[in-house]
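Sat 14:20. Reprocessing the chain from the morning session after the first attempt stalled halfway. Input below, unchanged.
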Amino acid sequence: MEDITSNLSSLSFESGLTEDEKNLLYLRARSAGLTFCGAAHASFLFKLVHLLRGIIKCQTTNRDSLASGEDSDLCLGILGMGHIGKQLLHTLLEKTGVNPSHIKISTRRPESAVAFVQTGVECFFDNRRLAAWADVLFLCCLPSHLPKVCTDLHSHLSKHCLVYSFPSAVPVTRLAQLLGHDFILKPQYDLVACDTADMWLSCTHLTTALKNPLLIETSCPLAVNGGISLGLNWVCAVLYSLLNICTSASLGSSDALAVIKRIFKEKWPHTVELNTHSFISSSYASSLLADEPFPWISLTDAQTRETPLLRFLSSSKPMQQCISATYKSQLETTLKWD
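Finished this time. Tokens:
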């Protein structure tokens, strides 16, 4: 039966707004865009970490490739099951193919995650237990809850646990102090007015929107389309995260570079330019032996200071294109790990 009310302007969202309120309508598109980008960028990071762990596992067990699809047993934790937490979990299950049994959730309302528990995800309310277990921990709590959450997590996080924080009100330097932890990634979005921002209004259903190649391309961290961008500092922190994971696995610098290059070379036909000088100072790089691991890099410094990697990426358009191509490829592909 035809809906005779579908085109009635008097029933539209905008019809009841004052002129002053209509001037704020752009915030709807911005909110939808930030939700989409937040979930997409977190999924991209997780897929890179998962792939890297898989490659390292294959190498250390003398396997030739990741083609067998064997899971690298990456433990994924999500703290908070509000709007952001649920959207993120939907996205990770849909886009990464992660085994639900490798996901644990800590929330004050475990009953809100019943649908996810039925898929195999474990849900409870114990932040310290989650912190001690997770390899990658997504903080999806409200900013007002963050001090209490950080108190719970302090001294319970493994040094090698990568924390990804969504709350925007607390800078990464302060978050590192509260957690007593420096392996933290926090996206800092730049927002600008543009004519194409309304495209985000199509993100009514996030998992459906994440199948749209145009939206994926627009959300690329190095893009400025759609009025939302992350920029090179976040990309540098992602690459330093991968480097730290190699260091925690005791890979020599030569092997670490090889496995990171492998992730990007699969979707980029040109030479990946990364070398030791790309990541660390020239003086340190010159004395670093091939079988010696890279030093542990503070992600707080990587996101707040000028680093060798930031200088390298700023001057290397081919590497920027390589990262963008990898991002689009990873988001357009759903991997399955059994």
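Confidence is low (pLDDT under 50) at residues 63-71.
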